[in-house]
Amino acid sequence: MTATTTQTTTIDATDPEPAKPGAGATAAGLDTRIFEERESQVRSYSRSWPTVFSRAKGPRVFAEDGTAYLDFFAGAGALNYGHNNAEIIKPLIEYLTGDGIMHSLDMYTTAKRDFLSSFTKLVLEPRGMDYKVMFPGPTGTNAVEAALKLARKITGRQHVLSFTNAFHGMTLGSLSVTGNSMKRMGAGIPLTNTSKIPYDDYFSGSVDDFLWLERVLADSGSGVDKPAAIIVETVQGEGGLNAARAEWLRALSELCREHDILLIVDDVQAGCGRTGTFFSFEEAGIVPDIVCLSKSLSGSGQPLAVTLLRPELDEWSPGEHNGTFRGNNPAFVTGRAALDLYWGDDAFAASVRERSAELHAGLGRIAEAHGGTLRGRGLLCGIAFPDDATAGAVSRAAFERGLLVETSGPESEVLKTMPPLTITPAELAEGIDIIEQSAQHVLGN
Ligand SMILES: *Cc1c(COP(=O)(O)O)cnc(C)c1O
What we know:
This protein is of the alpha/beta class and about 450 residues long.
């Protein structure tokens, strides 16, 4: 891009207009030139929300001109406990001022010990789960890559099955099990050793979901290589908020067990309480062989990921998988604080389920008024509108009214709400109101 075609939204500092949402491009103090001139055009969220954010607290984010936005995006699920949650940040500040270890690769540290202890005591033990915890590198895609590698190593098979509209991350292994064609094209090389199979309700109930898979796995002449693993999201966060039914997940788990295929649940987005239980698959009562967690695991927006494995699958050789940033100690500190704060009993999860019911009722009402359908589960839900372009337009109208809410799905056709789990009923209602007004503004009536 040349300087002449660069869009610049800098402003005359003498502009007398007071700051109002969406007026960022004309409000004083918002200088976006350096981003447009220097930052790669690969950036995308900044295109939906063309303002400059400077502070955030709880469910609100503030632009540098002072405009407040209610956040129904929550860092794509990395901020389940809100922005700068005081109870989570306090121990971090103490840790930093006390010269706590910042970086440690996979060495033993007190921060990692405390995190693992709380994770064991508050997450694994109460659920009767006995997983080994692997730190694969700090992002969601790192957790997925480690899971795929391990499944292939253990089974000696190369093939992995994943689902239509799945999203598992941007590195090559994760991309190979992701559905989105634009993102797959970005790989620049063939994405091999994987196949896509239909997610729950892909045929709108007209075909038995596992018919094909059951048949080809049982048929030695099918020509379909037996997979090492099947990787699944219980709710497809990026792929359009399709939510698998509990009985479908149980049937998938059963099929994997029968055929000696490892079941990997990618709970990077739907996990950490998003659907009303710590793991999104608890409701289905399944126990996956491998589980990937990241996004809200640190509780503070810092990068942290784990790959959980059944103990008998822990066949790694020391150092066979590694990474410089596996020991993100500040993230251990806040991750532990979040677990201690919210997961000691069921009270927090129960409040998430109450907020979910309220959000579903509100969005359901809006969907009904405009011929749309409610999608998703828990506080990972949204509206699929009849026209693909509506969700984007509603998202833009919401931004102008002071709400951050994104879209999801292959054609960005689903309005996707993801408020912090700590949101109050009043704040939730405020956001629902803005969505309602925005939908009315876009669609009339
Ligand atoms: C976000 C996400 C990932 C990738 O995580 P990154 O931290 O962006 O690498 C993988 N799987 C799911 C389900 C996700 O939502």
